C-alpha cells in the first residue's frame, strides 16, 4: 500500500481510527505523507487511499482532516510539481506560483530594494520547485514584483488573495478594482461583462455560500462568516474611501445579513461600511 500500512489496518500493532483522538496525530502524518507523495491526488482520492490502507472513518471526520492537511501541505509548498521558467508551456504556471510566493512573503520582500528583493524571491522560487536559468528566474521575479497587487499577473486573470488564516487563494478582480469574485477563472468574461461600470464607494464581493452558512472561497476550504470578513479585509483595496460592501452570495437569510453587518461593524478596518446583500 502507498502509505505502508498493513492490510489488517494497524500501524506498529495499533488500529487507527480517526474518531480516536489518540490516533489523529498518526493519521495527520500519514495524510501529509500521502499528499506529498501524490501531489495531484484530490482530497477524495487521498481519503479513499487512507481507508483502503486501514484507517477507519467511523465518525466521518476523515475528509475534513485530509482537507486540512492538503491545505497545509499546499501552503508549505509540498504539493508543488517541478516547473521551469525556461519552458514557454510553464510560463503562466510559473507566474502564478511566483505571485503566490511574493504575497506569502510580502513583508520580507517589500522591505528590500532591488536587486535584493529579486534575489530573495528567486530563492523562494527555487525552494518551491521552480527551475530554470538565473536570467529567466530573475526576469519572472522582476515581473511579479512590478505588478500592482490588485492587478492580475501578465497572462493570467486572477490575483492571489491571503485568506483569514494566511492561506493563498486565487480570485478575479472586478474592473476598476471595484471588488473581487471568488469564482472559477473560466467565468472571467462573464464577470467583467456583468460589472462594467462600478459605483464610486461601493465594493462588490462574489462568493459561494451554502445553506449551512458556510462560504467557499476555494472548493475545499470552508469559511465561517467571521473568516469571510477577515479575508475581505485582506483584499488590496483602499477601504477608507469606500462606504458600501455589496455581497453577492446564495441562500443569505435576513438573520445572516444582520450577523454579517455586526461582524463588519466590529472589524477595525471595515467598521464604517454598510452591508448590501441584494
Structure, explained:
Strands 6-7-8-9-13-14 form a 6-stranded mixed beta sheet. It has a 3-stranded mixed beta sheet with strand order 1-2-3. It has 278 residues and is α/β, with parallel strands linked by helices. 40% of the residues lie in helices and 17% in strands. It is built from 10 helices and 14 strands. It has 3 domains: 10-75, no CATH class; 83-146, no CATH class; 159-276, no CATH class.
Q: What is the gyration radius calculated from CA atoms?
A: 21 Å
> What is the first-to-last residue Cα distance?
52 Å
How many helical stretches? 10
Tell me, briefly, the overall form.
globular
Query: How much is the average pLDDT?
Result: 86
Tell me the count of domains: 3
Instruction: Tell me how many strands there are.
Output: 14
Kindly report the spatial arrangement of strands forming the biggest sheet.
6-7-8-9-13-14
Q: Specify the helix fraction band.
A: 25-40%
The share of residues in extended strands comes to 15-25%
State the low-pLDDT regions, or none.
1-9
| Main beta-sheet annotation | 6 strands, mixed
Structural class: alpha/beta
Order of helices and strands: EEHHEHEHHHEHEEEHEEEEHEHE
Provide key terms for this protein.
3 domains, alpha/beta, 40% helix, globular, three-stranded mixed β-sheet, six-stranded mixed β-sheet, 278 residues
Amino acid at each position: 500500500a502507498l502509505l505502508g500500512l498493513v492490510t489488517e489496518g494497524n500501524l506498529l500493532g495499533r488500529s487507527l481510527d480517526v474518531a480516536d483522538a489518540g490516533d489523529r496525530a498518526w493519521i495527520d502524518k500519514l495524510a501529509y505523507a500521502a499528499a506529498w507523495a501524490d501531489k495531484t491526488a484530490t482530497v477524495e482520492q487521498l481519503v479513499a487511499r487512507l481507508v483502503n490502507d486501514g484507517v477507519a472513518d467511523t465518525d466521518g471526520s476523515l475528509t475534513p482532516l485530509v482537507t486540512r492537511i492538503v491545505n497545509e501541505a499546499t501552503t508549505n509548498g509540498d504539493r508543488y510539481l517541478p516547473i521551469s521558467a525556461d519552458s514557454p508551456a510553464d510560463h503562466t504556471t510559473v507566474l502564478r506560483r511566483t505571485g503566490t510566493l511574493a504575497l506569502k512573503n510580502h513583508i520580507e520582500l517589500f522591505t528590500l530594494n532591488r536587486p535584493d528583493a529579486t534575489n530573495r524571491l528567486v530563492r523562494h522560487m527555487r525552494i518551491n520547485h521552480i527551475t530554470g536559468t538565473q536570467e529567466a528566474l530573475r526576469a519572472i521575479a522582476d515581473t511579479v514584483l512590478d505588478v500592482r497587487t490588485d492587478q492580475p499577473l501578465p497572462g493570467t486573470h486572477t490575483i492571489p488573495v491571503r485568506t483569514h488564516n494566511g492561506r493563498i487563494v486565487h480570485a478575479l478582480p472586478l474592473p476598476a478594482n471595484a471588488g473581487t469574485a471568488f469564482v472559477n477563472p473560466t467565468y472571467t468574461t462573464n464577470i467583467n461583462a456583468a460589472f462594467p461600470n462600478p459605483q464610486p464607494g461601493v465594493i462588490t464581493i462574489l462568493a459561494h455560500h451554502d445553506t449551512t452558512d458556510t462560504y467557499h472561497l476555494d472548493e475545499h476550504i470552508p469559511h465561517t462568516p467571521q473568516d469571510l470578513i477577515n479575508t475581505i479585509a485582506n483584499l488590496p483595496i483602499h477601504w477608507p474611501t469606500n462606504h458600501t460592501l455589496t455581497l453577492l452570495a446564495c441562500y443569505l437569510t435576513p438573520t445572516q445579513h444582520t450577523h454579517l453587518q455586526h461582524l463588519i461593524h466590529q472589524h477595525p478596518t471595515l467598521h464604517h461600511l454598510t452591508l448590501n446583500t441584494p
